[in-house]
Sequence to fold (547 residues):
Amino acid sequence: MRLAVIGAGAVGRSVVELASEYGHEIVAVADSSTATVADGSGPDGTRGGANSPAGVDPDAVVARKAERGIVGDDDPEDALAADYDVLVEATPTTLGDAEPGFSHVTRALERDRHAVLANKGPVAERFGDLRAAVDDSDGEIRYEATVGGAIPAVSTVEDIEPGHVTAVRGVLNGTANFILTRMAAEGLDYDHVLAEAQDLGVAEADPSFDVDGTDAALKCVILANVLSFGAADDPADAREFTLDDADVSGIRDVPGSALRLAAEDGRTVRLIGEATGETVRVAPRLVPENGTLAVSGTQNIVQIETSHAGRLNISGRGAGGPETASAVLGDVGRLE
Amino acid sequence: MSDRRDGTPEAALDAEDAADSADGSAGADADPSPDGGHAAAAPSTHTVRLELVDEPGQLLAALHPIADNGGNLLSIYHERGNKTPRGRIPVEVDFEATPDRFEEIVEALRSEGVNVMQAGTERYAEEVTLLLFGHLIDTDLSDTLSRIEACESASVADVSLAAPQGTEEVSSARLRLEARAGETDAALAAVRDLAAEKELRVVEPLTGVEA
Fold:
């Protein structure tokens, strides 16, 4: 497949680097202000490395981004107009209208091309609009990378069939999980562990998105949409979820003393997200200290309750460039 | 009371119910109202799980309230090798009693200071542990606890408090509630409402999930 990668952060760059291993070709890459488009599809026809005559040279793109902060000399518009089979939307998640990610995806669909999203915004905030755009297109969308990084949460729910899944819950934010794990293990307070996480690059300078539960909530909203629309006989009857429908509380004010009391009783606290076809809830919850859901550090876990097959647990890396790129490229493979 | 042990089908069924609940599946599989359909005064088999302090005479002290209030002891399972996280010894006692007497026995056990973890299939069939944190002491912890206690669905079995920065700063409490069968959600909702009113935070357990 020929891929246009929009967004050149950790995930976008990893997709560019790994695509050839999966048998795909990169024909365009864009960040927010620059782009590179392969020979034959760009307006000036100047790009393209010696080793990949028809596509963009992945190493050169990554090097330019690292050294000069640009991916190339083309305009991002050219990347969106390039001759690709699949558009990979890997720009930062935005809330509300979910722009510009939403328009990137709909422009692909209008051209009857596929889109694979790593950006949670459009799937969480405008699922109904996305579905409408898909209905009018020969293209399809996939968004495995939006939930749980490398963990195949969405495709597993689809394989089981959403009508036979009663709930999906789990630990879906590595930053919050790292903080809770360290607080419990070392008896430290939130502020101390947050500073440590920031030094390690596990938490952002502004950690609100992670520690307030927003990120986990978006993932649960996406799962709720998958369950709701997947189980409905007629999509018109399905309930659409957005972040506003989620009941969210974060971990910012959880005191160390609460974790100590939990540990005395063989329990611990994890930021647990739960989605059904009717509700979305994210909150710190008490779980058994050695239980399945009490994954450590930045690990994530997704637990799927099924009608006929009991409970499934999938744990693994919920974030990271190559991890998330593997989910993106898995989706690309499903579109072949 | 022993003349009731006549091997009628009802008695056999009751005993089975009680055995189920002893396996830890109380509430989920057991009939939430085991006395339903029977004559109100008919004795049935009950299982209570007690936590005893590891000291001489504790077991006898726990059995007196049962015998003294008309319970007919059937079996005692003393899990000596198995201690609770706080170093107590769990003991499971089966006895026959009428519903009224069963209530009295549980009250008597508690007033003797015996920690009743689980009793029968009707009262206290479910146990739930949660954390509360915030300005627990400034917002009158004893009022908080007595209002939870006043809620029909649950009673407070155990409280642990941690106030590392003194009583005026944020403190935490771990509460163990005993809830009636099927009423855990109602009990948690009551705690949630109370916490919202007092601007406290609740860390609820994942109920129904045997992680």
